[in-house]
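User: Fold both of these, please.

Assistant: Here is the first one.
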Amino acid sequence: MIAAILICGSLTAVDGDTVRCDGQLMRLLGGGVPFQSGIDTPEIGSHAKCIKERKLALIAKGRLKELLEERGLRIDIKGYDNTPKHRPLINIYRTNGEEIGSKLLKDGFARTWTPHHKNDWCTG
């Protein structure tokens, strides 16, 4: 699949691994490969399984929001998910070349994601 580069007039954090570009929800891959590897952050709000996960989700979202405020971000579309909304699966690169999802992973705001693996944010 050929990657596409996207330009957003408005780019906001929805949660720790989802952004909204001009109204379109998009999922961060964190440098991963669609359907094979990526990042996972705690679920926000009613999707959280415990209070700890809900709190961690707000922290991860806050850090992603900070990173999205940087000028000159580059968004690469790597594919689309299998949900009815067909969300773009993306990597966002900072001007220094660092991928934002990988930065969240490195700094402890995210964990690696692989198919059929669920991260437990409540006990770990």
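And the second sequence with its predicted structure:
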Amino acid sequence: MTALSRAAVAFLAATALVGVTAPAAAAEPRVFDTFYDYDSSAPLSSYAPGDVLKTRTVPYHLVNVPTPLQAVQVLYRSTDALGRPIANATSILRPANAQPGKVLSYQSVYDSLNPDDSPSRAIAGNTPIGQWTPSGRNFNLGGTIASGEIAMFGPMLAAGYTVVIPDTEGPTADFAAGPEYGMLTLDSLRAARAVSETGIESDAKIALMGYSGGAIATNWAAILAPDYAPDVDDDLIGAAEGGVLVNPATNLRYANGSLGWGGVVGMAIVGIARAYDIDFDPYLNNYGREIMARMQDASIANAIAQYPGLTWQQMVEPEYADPNSVPEFVDVVNKINMGTAPIPTIPMFIANSTNGILNGTLPGGPGTGPGDGVMVAEDVAALATRYCAAGLAIQYDQYETIEHGIGGALWLPGALQWLIDRFNGTPAPSNCGKFAPGNSLAPQTLVTPGSPAHTSPTGS
């Protein structure tokens, strides 16, 4: 890839990236398309994870405009955060020059609490751009993110790689529920291999790729593959990810009160409440209930910079100012902490930025440190250190002068080249031992509500 093409890819990536109450019923998709509905008489539980339920071929759409590129879409059986069977969608793009033995699983950055914003709907031309969301509180902008992501995976598609794009948040848009993201990603690959129209060989090499929300799915897929999908793990050759959510408890302390990213704190609370069937209502004050109601079908485009300075403490009753005084919170953040989860088996390229002050997030205190505005760099470094200690080949890059969105543009060219090298059989590089070890990723512990020692603005 030439310097010019790298710069063009980076520019396109930048343009694509910028841009809790009792768990209310998940936002209902307003797009009438029965493809996403499981309508067979057989119980969904009678199917194995990854089994194909439906298929169709549609033109690939950019902002609802069809293109000549065709996408095979598959409805398949998968598993949600609570272990229940669900039907989810994935899309497979096979270029004219497809190499059937090379597959890129691209995990989208679509971060949304609205199922209408999923990649499969954007690809099928079903994104309700320019309409109000079901709650009437948010203008639908999330689908435009998925529509623009061809800038991220387009170079691989042009080079002949088949690209699989799962709806990583599932049919109810369970934002931030990492393990669910991972299972949905792995089962989408099982389903994609089972459909002859995709042309994917049964032993095709597979790489994982994702930034930000896509990195949640990418890393959790790598974590879960050895046990949940060993058949997929056998064919995985590496993962490239950037802007990684490692330990959500630390992220809350870091982004709490951010001018740019404060609203994402609320989104995450709604998402994990929805995914894990948690009732946070007893801990919220009236303002918190109002904010959570607004967030029920919000996308990240409805949250960034729209809730400047929002904090956990503003939304909860005073005695719960420390998030760790809420048992359900402690339980769920420990479940979705990558730092205590199993170790993957594949090499990785991991990156994170550290200048989050550019979008209004100040560095945290001891145990948190700097980040990119929403992701904590020392947590990401700690995860890379943990994987290095387990013997994995890890390339960890840290971008000191930029924030989350621009970080994606800088990460992308290196990620693409790293992935191409893995497909070509080049040994994976490693800079293990050449970066700081990072924060502790130990599980969170429950504290007594209202304890004077645990009511600081950061909850530390």
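The longest helix spans residues 404-423.
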